[in-house]
Each structure stands twice: as C-alpha cells, then as structure tokens.
Amino acid sequence: MSIAVSAVSTGERGEVDAFYRRELGRDVELEADQEVLTARDGGVVVAALRLCPEAGTLLLRTVVVAGGRRGQGIGRSLLLKASKAIGSRECWCFPWSYLERFYGAIGFVRVADASVPMALHHRWNQREGIPTYRSAMP
After folding, report:
1. What does the pLDDT look like over 99-134, one tens digit per residue?
2. Which entry of 40, 43, 82, 91 is 20 to 30 Å from 112 by CA?
3. Arithmetic mean of pLDDT, 12-25
4. Strands annotated E in the chain
5. How confident is the model at residue 138 (pLDDT cuts 50, 70, 90)?
6. What does the CA dihedral 2, 5, 94, 50 come to, rounded to 10 degrees?
7. Predicted confidence band at 1 (pLDDT cuts at 50, 70, 90)?
C-alpha cells in the first residue's frame, strides 16, 4: 500500500465528488473557497476531507475513509496533512463523540456547548456530535 496524501486541484474535484457520492450516498458541495485533501492509493481516492471557511473561522468537515479501507491508518495520515494545512488558524470540528481522541491527536479539544458560536450551530448535530475546537496558534 502506497498512500499519497495531498491537496486537490480544481481539476481533481470531480473525483472527490464521485468518491463522496459513492461512500456517503449523497452529494457533498465542494465550493471554490474550500481546501480539499485526499488520500490516494495508486491514484484512486480512498479518503477525503474539507477545510471550509465559514463565519470568520475554519471548519474541518466531511472526513471520510472508504469503507473497505478503514483501520489502516489512512484517516490518520489524512488528518496529519490537514493539521499542516490548518497551520496557525483556528478551526472547529463537530465529530461524533467516539472520534474525540482521533481529532484530539491534532489538537482539537472538546469545548463547552455554550462556547460554540451561534453562526456555527447549524453545523452541529447536538444529539450525536460534540463541539471540538483547535485554537489559533502563533
């Protein structure tokens, strides 16, 4: 297995659209201002994520590893690349609670519900997700 993790060019977004549709059974809107990262095995997309600017901050969203490829460290490799792409910017993520340690590996910490900006509440499934935050770093 030779996994290559990188940012996606505009011309490669169609492959990511197809990947999300196949894995999630729905379309994921890839907007021009979003940073999209993929993990590829032999040129085939096996994982993807988006960094989305919204409400004056950044959101880590739609982290997906192909069904038959989970548990192989691909998500971890993708997340490490995302950490570098986030850099010193602040970032929010609203993962399922069982993924708290996964995102914590790159500095996301669970925060009080009350600290979630009102402008981001629509991104948070309060029954299944938890608010996590990675503060801006100097």
Report:
1. 999 999 999 999 999 999 999 999 988 888 999 999
2. 82
3. 96
4. 3-7, 35-41, 44-54, 57-65, 91-93, 109-110, 132-134
5. low
6. -140
7. low
Chain centroid offset of residue 60 CA: 4
Question: How many residues does the structure list for the chain?
Answer: 138
User: The tokens 């691909």 sit on which residue?
Assistant: 74
Q: How distant is the alpha carbon of residue 74 from its chain centre?
A: 13
Taking alpha carbons only, the member of 79, 10, 84, 25 closest to residue 48 is 79
Picking from 83, 80, 86, 90, the residue whose alpha carbon sits closest to that of residue 134 is 90
The residue written with tokens 């490490």 in the block is 80
The whole-number pLDDT of residue 70 equals 94
Is CATH 3.40.50.10490 correct for 3-134?
no
Return the H-helix or E-strand segment holding 69.
none
**50 near 17, Cβ under 8 Å?**
no
